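In response to reviewer comment 3 from the previous cycle, which asked for concrete evidence that the modeling workflow produces usable outputs, we include below a single protein chain processed end to end. The sequence was submitted unchanged, and the resulting structure tokens are shown without manual editing.
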Amino acid sequence: MHTFFSCSFAQEVWKLIPLRQVVHLATNINFKQALVEFRTAVCLPPSGIATTAFPWVLWAIWSTRNLHVFENRILSPMETATKALNLGREWNNAQQQIQSVKKVILTLRRSTGNNGESGTYTTCRSDAAYDKRSKRAGIAWIFSNGNGTHLSHGSATLESITTPLVAKQLRSDLVSSLHWNLSTKSSKLSLTT
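The workflow returned the following structure tokens.
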């Protein structure tokens, strides 16, 4: 508890987080109680964090501490607070991307027909491409049955993608969800990436 809330460094970090309301913690509070207190501590709108910053601030304080202890690198409270806010924004952006992919999946589930279902397995060919400059990714997929008949296909462009790994993970999640929709119509799946 001391590392996250009571030490002077942690207190400086918390002062820099733009919370709607200041959270006052008793000196003898335990971690569970702190979590309950911070549940409603939402960041102000300019921060870009729509939910509580609690986990991001804790992680930033902890990782800054580890940098100091294990690598002899020292970050200021301002750098640590900025790191926490960036992590929170990145999380929120990822959640918005997931919601966008879910909307694509729902649309595809409605439009997937019953054509060509005579094969005993489904093959999915998919890929993702990432553009670092624009932070955009493109994903595409084609499902076909054992006879080579196309069951479903599509593509999507995703905005605010932070790394190629995020693009690949979103592609994987999308393909898994699409397969779930088609799996009730076939017995096996072969995935090609």
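The mean pLDDT is 76. We consider this sufficient to address the reviewer's concern, and the full set will be provided in the supplementary archive.
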